[in-house]
Task: inverse folding
């Protein structure tokens, strides 16, 4: 079997023991004689799987009892719509409620654009002036806001909030797609958290939503059933067929994380990986980080060629990504909208993978002396 070090921003590498367990259980899970893919979602066996997955997530994230955990579909992008639809939209003929957004990247901007359809959304701060390479100072909310939305970790540009904004009694809504379970998070600081699974949780197709119970049941009557938190919460994520296999794999990933020592232990490892990689960029004359230091992400680390001249930079960057892939270090190209390079080093990326990449970069630099 050949495995590469996969630095993809999502879908991303999964822990090898998880893939191996899923493979071993593919045709017969827990002695049922069935694959999870073949099982009725209403069966006792699947009920045990979804309950185990939720219980592990609650334990690992220390989710207070007053929060519901939902396993939905539609990706993180559907939450850009569901949050305003459920929390801020008005009944027909009634006004929309207010909501605040902070624009820290391309996903945050998309969330705000979608929010503007169903809420009276206001972008209260933006770091667009410097290509989103920092997190702007966040003004407090309007007390009338139905929620205050942030993107905690910005996957494309590689920034993260160094401290949460103070929103008082206004519920904080956060996209945690690319940082969930990477560091401890105080869930009670948030009204709603959501994450597409395909980075730190499992395969694409499942979206995890963690929502404070008092925020459920606020959607106007015209909001379709499948887009309502009250329907999904009332039916235990089983209003319709949930993404069963994805939920099962998330359960395996959570078991793996628990066995490694949980989120605190993972955060220490993530810090070590990121520190090593940022130190490599600091010491390099060929590569540099475009992100301001206090806001650097632990999960997504963009870097660019530090040499003068756009043509030279482009040539080096394209060649770097190609030669790295040939050396078994894949998916290092930056996002198509920003270019450059990016190493996504989620929980499943071992320290060894980061060391390999650093070693490759040092060799590449030596053979490309300006
Ligand atoms: C921070 C963030 N939000 C939202 C999305 C969109 O997620 P999805 O494709 O699950 O809709 C992504 C995807 O990479 C992301 O990184």
Result:
């Amino acid at each position: 079997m050949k495995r590469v070090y996969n630095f993809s921003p999502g879908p991303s590498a999964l822990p090898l023991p998880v893939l191996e367990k899923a493979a071993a259980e593919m045709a017969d899970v827990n002695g049922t004689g069935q694959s999870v893919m073949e099982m009725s979602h209403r069966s006792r066996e699947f009920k045990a799987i979804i309950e185990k997955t939720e219980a592990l997530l609650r334990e690992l994230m220390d989710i207070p009892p007053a929060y519901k955990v939902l396993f939905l579909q539609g990706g993180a992008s559907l939450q850009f719509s569901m949050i305003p639809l459920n929390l801020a939209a008005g009944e027909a003929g009634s006004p929309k409620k207010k909501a605040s957004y902070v624009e820290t990247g391309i996903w945050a901007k998309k969330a705000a654009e979608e929010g503007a359809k169903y809420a009276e959304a206001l972008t209260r701060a933006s770091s667009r002036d410097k290509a989103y390479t920092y997190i702007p100072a966040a003004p407090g909310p309007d007390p009338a806001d139905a929620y205050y939305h942030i993107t905690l970790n910005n996957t494309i540009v590689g920034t993260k909030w160094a401290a949460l904004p103070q929103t008082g009694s206004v519920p904080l809504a956060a996209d945690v797609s690319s940082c969930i379970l990477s560091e401890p998070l105080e869930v009670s600081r948030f009204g709603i958290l959501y994450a597409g699974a395909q980075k730190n949780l499992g395969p694409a197709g499942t979206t995890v939503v963690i929502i404070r119970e008092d925020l459920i049941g606020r959607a106007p009557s015209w909001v379709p059933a499948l887009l309502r938190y009250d329907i999904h919460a009332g039916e235990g994520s089983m209003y319709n067929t949930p993404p069963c296999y994805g939920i099962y794999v998330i359960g395996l990933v959570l078991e793996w994380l628990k066995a490694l020592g949980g989120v605190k232990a993972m955060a220490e490892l993530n810090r070590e990986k990121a520190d090593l990689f940022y130190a490599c960029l600091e010491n390099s004359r060929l590569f540099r980080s475009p992100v301001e230091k206090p806001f650097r992400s632990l999960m997504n680390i963009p870097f660019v060629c530090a040499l003068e001249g756009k043509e030279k930079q482009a040539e080096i960057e394209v060649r770097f990504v190609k030669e790295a892939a040939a050396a078994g270090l894949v998916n290092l190209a930056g996002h198509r909208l920003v270019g450059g390079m990016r190493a996504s080093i989620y929980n499943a990326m071992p320290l060894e993978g980061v060391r390999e990449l650093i070693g490759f970069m040092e060799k590449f630099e030596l053979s490309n002396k300006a």
About this structure: The CA atoms of residues 184 and 361 lie 31 Å apart. The pocket of pyridoxal-5'-phosphate is lined by residues 10, 75-77, 107, 151, 155, 175, 177-178, 196 (CB under 6 Å). The longest helix spans residues 262-283.
